[in-house]
Predict the structure.
Amino acid sequence: TKAKANFNKKDYDASYGTLVKALAANPNSTEALRLIASVYQKKKQWDTSLVYFNKVLEIDPLDYVSLFDRGVSKSHLKDFIGAQQDIEKAMQIDTASKYIGYNNLGFFLDFEKKEYQKALESFNKSITLSPDFAYAYCNRAFAKLQLGDIKGAYADIHKSISLDPENTYAYKNLGLIQL
C-alpha cells in the first residue's frame, strides 16, 4: 500500500525502495513485481521494465495486465511484433478488456508507425466495444487530425472531454485541432 501511495504521488524512488523490501519478504509477489515494472516504465527504462514483467508472467502467464503493459514497453523499444503479440494475448485472456487492447494497438503501435488509417480502425473497434471509453475518442480524434478530417477530430475530442473532463490529453489534442 505504501509503495502504491508513493507511486501515485510520482515518488518512484520511494515506491521502488518499499517494493524491494516487499520482494525480500516474498520474491514471488506478482503485485510487487508488476509495480516495480511500472516504476521502470515511468522512468522510461523500457528494457528493465521488461525484466520485471517477464518475472510476473513466469509466475502467472495469465496476468493480462502485465501482458498489456509489457506490450507498451515493447512498443517503445520498437519491437512492434512482440508488442502486438502481447496485447492480442491479453485481449484473448480477458475478453472484457478488448476495448483497451484495441486502443493500445492503435496508440502504441499504429501511431508509432504513423499508420493513422489503421489506428482509426483500432479506435473504432474500441469505441464499438465500449462507447463510453473517453481515451479511444481522444486518440481517434488525433488519428482523424493526422488524416485531415478536422471536423471529425473536433467532434471526437469534444465527445472525449464530455466523457472525461479531467483527461489532459484531450485538451492537448483540442489545442492541436484548433491550430
Q: What stands out?
A: Residues 12-25 form the longest helix (14 residues). The mean pLDDT is 97.
